[in-house]
Amino acid sequence: MHELHAASYHARQVPEYTEVVEGVWAIPVPLSGSALRYVTVFLIDTADGLVLVDAGYDHPSCWQSFHRSVESIGHRVEAITTVFLTHNHPDHVGFADHLRTVSRAQIVMGRADDFATMRRERGGFLQQLRAALDLTGAPPDVADAMYADAVAVAVHAESLRLDHAPADETAFRFGDVTLLAVPTPGHTYGHTVYFDTRGLVFTGDTMMAEGPTQLAIVSRPDDDPAADLFRSLARIRALGATIACPAHQYPYREVAARVDELTAFHRGEVEAVRELVDDGDTAWPLAQRMKWPRPWAELGRGSRRFHLVHALALLRAVRR
What we know:
By secondary structure, the chain is an alpha/beta fold. Helix content is 40%, strand content 19%.
C-alpha cells in the first residue's frame, strides 16, 4: 500500500495525492488560513462512477486544488456521483454543494449531523458552544471571550441539504463496490464512518493515526460523547477493516490495534478525571488541574477553549 507516511504528515508542506489501493486515492486539500494545513478527501473509482468521501472548506482554493488533483489522476469532477460526508464540520462539508451543482452528485451524511435536524434538536453550532461554555462553570468574562473568538473563526453556512441522511447502518452499492455507512458518534453526534467491504474504513475525525479524538460538545443533559466514542470504536473494530483512511494525517494498517490504543487512552482520561474531580467541581477548575500537552498557564485562549470543552465531556462521563 502506498501511504501518506508519518514523515509527510509532520512536514510543513501539503503531501501529494496518493493511491491507497487500486482505484482509491487520498487527496490532501489545503485549508487556507487553518492550523490544520489540509484535510484529506478520498476518491473511489467504481463501475457506477466516482465516489468522494468528505469535501474540504467552502473556499475557492480548496475547490481549485481538489479539481486539479482529480484531473491529474485522470478523472473528471463531473463524473462524481455521490459525496459521503463523515460529519458536519466546515473542513468536511465545504464544497459538497458546489460539487453537486457541477456533477449532480448525491450527498450523504448521518442524520444527527444533518444541519436541519441539528438545528431542530440541538440548535446551531454556535448555540451549542455557548451552552457548553456556560456548563463549564468558567467565569462569565472568560466564557464570553472564548465565545467571541469562536464566532470570529467558526461561522459557516449550516444550510447544506442532504439527499440521504441515514440514522442506522445503510449499505450503498456501486457496481462491485459496497460502502456501508456506520453511525459512529463521539466526535460529533452524527459522525459516520464508511466501510468499503474490500477492507478500507474511512474514519473521518473519529480515529486518526496519531493522537486523541476531540470529543463532541456537551450541550444537553443526555449528552455523553465519551460513552458514544467507546461504542463507536468497538463497532469500528468489529468491521474487520485492514486499512483506516482518516481525514487528517495519513492512512494506516493495524486498525484493531489503533482502536485498542485509542480506547485505552480515552478510558485513561476518564479515570484521571475521576481521580481529580471533587464533589461539586465544574469543568473550569478541573481543566486547570488536568494534564495537557502544554501546561494550562502556557495555553492560548483558543487552546484553552478546546481543552475546557473536552474536560466538560470527560466530566460528564464520570458523572453519568
